[in-house]
Design brief:
Blueprint (H helix, E strand, L loop, with lengths): L1 H15 L3 E3 L11 E3 L10 H16 L3 E5 L2 E3 L7 H6 L7 E4 L7 E5 H13 L7 E5 L3 E3 L1 H12 L4 E4 L2 H7 L4 H8 L8 E3 L2 H6 L8 H25 L1
Parallel strand pairs: 1-3, 2-10, 3-7, 4-6, 5-9
Antiparallel strand pairs: 6-8
Helix pairs in contact: 1-2, 5-9, 6-7
Length: 237
C-alpha cells in the first residue's frame, strides 16, 4: 500500500507544485543505538524498515520538493491512536505503566503540536531549502523510569512498570496483523536512541519545544479522560 500511496502523493505534488512534508520515523536507523542524525546510515532491520527506506528514496528521486521531518514516537494530547495512550499508559488506572523493553532504555518522543508548528515554519522557508531535506526533529528523549517519576510526582501515587505481553503477540501473529507489526518493531524498545538537534537548530534556531514535564503530563490526559468517561457510564448504568 505504501508504494501506491507514495506514487499518488508524488503525482499530486508534481501537478500542483506543492511541497511534501513527511513525518519520517526512526525505522531507517537500525538496531545500533546512539544519537541519530541525517547522516546516520540507513540500516533497515525489518520489512517495515525497508519499506520506509524505499519510500524516502522514491521522494528523493521524484523531483518534488520534500522535507522529511524525522521523529520518534508521537505523543498526541488528544490520544488519537498514539503509542503512549494505546500502549504505555493503557493500564495507568490500575497502577501500571507498560514497557516494550527495559525501563531504562532512552527513547525519542515527539509532541505532535510541536511537530506541526515546526512543519509549518519549514514550509514557509521552502524557497531557501533544497529540493530534498532530511531534518531530524529532536523532541524529547526520556526513559520509562523518567516518565514514571514524573507521573508519580504529579499524581502522588506509585506505579510499577510491567513488560508488554510479547509472548501473546507471538502466539497471535499468524492471525493478527497488528501483532505481527508490533513484533517486527520490538527491537526499537531495546535500542537506546535520540535524535540530533544540530540541523533542526540551524534551520529553526528560535524554536521552543514544549517542556518535557508538560509533554509527559499531556500524554496522560486522554487516558484519564477515558477512565473518567468509563466511570461515569458505570455510575449511570
Amino acid at each position: 500500500m505504501i508504494p501506491q500511496i507514495t506514487e499518488q502523493v508524488i503525482a499530486a505534488a508534481k501537478a500542483s507544485g506543492a511541497i511534501v512534508i513527511l513525518p519520517g520515523n526512526v525505522y531507517n536507523s537500525g538496531a545500533e543505538g546512539g544519537i541519530w542524525s541525517q547522516e546516520t546510515p540507513h540500516r533497515p532491520v525489518s520489512r517495515k524498515d525497508r519499506i520506509r527506506v524505499e519510500m524516502e528514496a522514491a521522494y528523493g528521486l521524484a523531483g518534488v520538493q520534500t522535507i522529511i521531518l524525522r521523529v520518534g514516537n508521537f505523543i498526541d494530547p488528544e490520544g488519537q491512536g498514539d503509542i503512549m495512550s494505546m500502549f504505555i499508559l493503557r493500564d495507568i488506572s490500575r497502577g501500571k505503566i507498560v514497557g516494550g523493553g527495559a525501563p531504562d532504555v532512552t527513547q525519542t518522543w515527539c509532541y505532535l503540536p510541536d511537530w506541526a508548528r515546526a512543519a509549518e515554519l519549514l514550509a514557509r522557508m521552502r524557497a531557501d531549502l533544497p529540493s530534498f531535506e532530511d531534518i531530524p526533529f529532536p523532541g524529547h528523549s526520556f526513559t520509562l523510569t523518567d516518565l514514571r517519576a514524573q507521573l508519580e510526582e504529579h499524581l502522588e501515587r506509585s506505579f510499577r512498570i510491567v513488560r508488554f505481553p510479547w509472548r501473546l503477540m507471538t502466539m497471535a501473529a499468524p492471525f493478527w496483523e497488528l501483532a505481527r507489526a508490533l513484533r517486527e518493531m520490538r527491537y526499537l524498545w531495546d535500542t537506546p536512541h535520540s535524535l540530533s538537534d544540530r540541523k533542526f537548530n540551524r534551520h529553526l534556531p528560535d524554536f521552543r519545544h514544549t517542556p518535557v514535564a508538560d509533554v509527559m503530563l499531556d500524554s496522560l490526559s486522554p487516558v484519564l479522560r477515558a477512565v473518567d468517561q468509563a466511570d461515569a457510564m458505570a455510575r449511570s448504568a
